[in-house]
Write a structure and sequence with these properties.
Radius of gyration: 32 Å
Number of domains: 2
Largest sheet: none
Structural class: mainly alpha
Number of strands: 0
Shape: elongated
Strand content: under 5%
Length: 454
């Protein structure tokens, strides 16, 4: 996975600031959606399994509605899940430039796992839609239950049986891969905070021995429970007026279950936030980390109150407020983590900025403004009598000497203006009657000619 290091270059302070902003925005997009996707898939699989086992259509319908509303569609899964996580991975690679740490590899594995998980989740989602079409076909056929069992073609029955197996397997595999994705994501981001112990984390086995990884993984699971519960309430009852095809019994069922899921997660999340705070290494602590932790804690307490009001009063008027407060708490959690990470890698960012400035200076030294001056004409007028590119004349061939300047136009130009005897096999080169810009032009021509650019 070290190939990522070849895709990033040292960045200046301005570019590093922009990368931090991109990282924050990608996290704000990724975490809530991933939480909804993980929690939604988990609860959909659970209710679907229970409903089919006990032949309870309400549970099966609820499982279908959860995955439809929370996963949305395949394009959203890629746009709000895979792409932001890939952006997060490259931002970490850029901010950890030059560091030997496993975080980037873990985040890259998480991205690959999420990509596979998304395909399973949306395969699981599509089986519900196909199953609905089959049920519609049975309804419009006008056949009663006994006739359906005897008159429906065997191919349709076999396809329905295979569909149920695909539904179960795809959902379960999607859920397992999402959980593993959460583990690798928690490991990558947690280890990145330990900038004074990067040498202790060089393989995946060491990730499982990290207490901060374990606590942050559990916190991410609880966050997903909260996200899915709040999202069930919001998309079932709040978004665009809610679902309009719900009977009162089903609406009460969905509100009760969604409210309990949301309240359980919202009540547990402050506990894990408090625990995770103590696993932040001292090197990553700052005043902003304390502030954002406090703000996230307050937002989560407000979320508990709003969700409790929904459960107690069976009233949907607090659902929108609960959703927006949840998103606010997610933003504070992201800002807390980004602040801690920024402090942890501050020394590395200073070194990275210095390397970027040195690289920029080297690039400037290798480029000059020679507009209006023809280097080839100067070469043909002054240099060709003593030098050729591949043949020894009075002076050495350019194919032998020019590469020693490593593309540095200014260095070669300075030698042309003030030559110094270097090789005892050749006579000293006389100073040339050239202006600095003319020397730059002929130097650039020689370098480009030897390098094959001309």
């Amino acid at each position: 996975m070290d190939f990522l290091q070849n895709l990033v270059i040292p960045a200046t302070t301005q570019h590093l600031l922009m990368i931090k902003v991109i990282l924050g925005l990608a996290m704000i997009i990724f975490l809530p959606f991933f939480g909804m996707l993980l929690g939604g898939t988990a609860f959909s699989v659970i209710f679907n399994s229970y409903g089919r086992k006990h032949r309870n259509q309400m549970f099966i319908r609820f499982a279908k509605d959860i995955i439809d509303k929370l996963a949305i569609n395949r394009f959203v899964g890629v746009g709000l899940g895979v792409i932001p996580l890939l952006s997060i991975t490259f931002c970490y690679a850029q901010l950890l430039f030059g560091q030997s740490v496993i975080s980037i590899s873990l985040l890259l594995v998480a991205t690959l796992l999420l990509t596979i998980a998304v395909s399973f989740v949306y395969s699981y989602q599509s089986t519900f839609q196909i199953e609905s079409l089959i049920e519609t076909f049975k309804d419009i056929s006008g056949l009663d239950k006994h006739e359906l069992e005897t008159k429906v073609p065997e191919e349709v029955s076999d396809y329905e049986f295979d569909l149920l197996n695909t539904n179960s397997n795809a959902g379960l595999w999607g859920l397992v891969l999402l959980i593993i994705t959460a583990l690798f994501f928690a490991g990558g981001t947690s280890i990145a905070l330990n900038s004074d112990r990067y040498q202790d984390f060089q393989n995946i086995a060491q990730m499982f021995l990290s207490g901060s990884t374990f606590i942050n993984f559990l916190m991410l699971i609880v966050f997903s429970v909260t996200a899915s519960g709040v999202a069930i309430l919001f998309f079932f009852f709040g978004w665009q007026g809610g679902m309009h095809d719900m009977e009162k019994e089903y609406a009460d069922f969905a509100r009760n279950i969604g409210g309990k899921i949301a309240f359980t997660g919202a009540a547990l999340l402050p506990v894990f936030l408090f625990m995770s705070f103590f696993f932040i290494p001292n090197v990553a602590l700052s005043g902003s980390v304390f502030v954002f932790t406090g703000l996230a804690f307050i937002a989560l307490l407000m979320l508990c109150n709003f969700v409790y009001a929904v459960i107690r009063n069976s009233d949907t008027k607090y659902i929108a407020a609960a959703f927006y407060v949840f998103m606010l708490s997610a933003i504070f959690l992201v800002l807390k983590n980004d602040s801690a990470f920024g402090i942890a890698v501050q020394k590395n960012l200073i070194v990275t900025n210095q390397k970027a400035l040195e690289l920029e200076a080297q690039k400037k030294s290798k480029t000059v403004n020679v507009s209006g001056v023809n280097g080839e004409e100067i070469y043909n007028r002054l240099c060709v009598a003593c030098h050729k590119f591949d043949v020894k004349l009075v002076g050495p061939p350019y194919q032998q000497t020019i590469p020693t300047y490593n593309g540095d136009v200014k260095k070669l130009s300075s030698y042309i203006l003030n030559p110094v005897k270097k090789n005892p096999e050749y006579p000293p080169m006389p100073a040339q009657p050239l202006k600095p810009k003319e020397a730059d032009a002929v130097a650039q021509y020689l370098i480009e000619k030897v390098s094959g650019k001309k």
